[in-house]
Amino acid sequence: MIDLKQLQREVYQNKVEKGFNITDICREFCYLQGELAEAFEAYDRREPGLGEELADVAIYLLGLAEILHVDLESEIVRKIEINRKRKYVTENGVLKKAEG
Fold it and tell me: Gene3D superfamilies attached here (predicted)?
């Protein structure tokens, strides 16, 4: 089983050891967005390496979570439960979150 908490720490430690950014939060969000764009480009062009690009997205996300002291594993588990309980309706052919 994967331990996201440990992966967060490992990603952060790698950033520290390599001298990568760990203080400019805005820059980290931009890097994350850039990695997501690269993943989309690989998908859109049907290029090999989509998995590696998605891994880059996950790595940047884990690193950002560690920098911000967010327990991403707990947040994912909590959000999955919220989504599991959420009800949806289709209105005019569009799936929407039900009120209430």
Answer: MazG-like
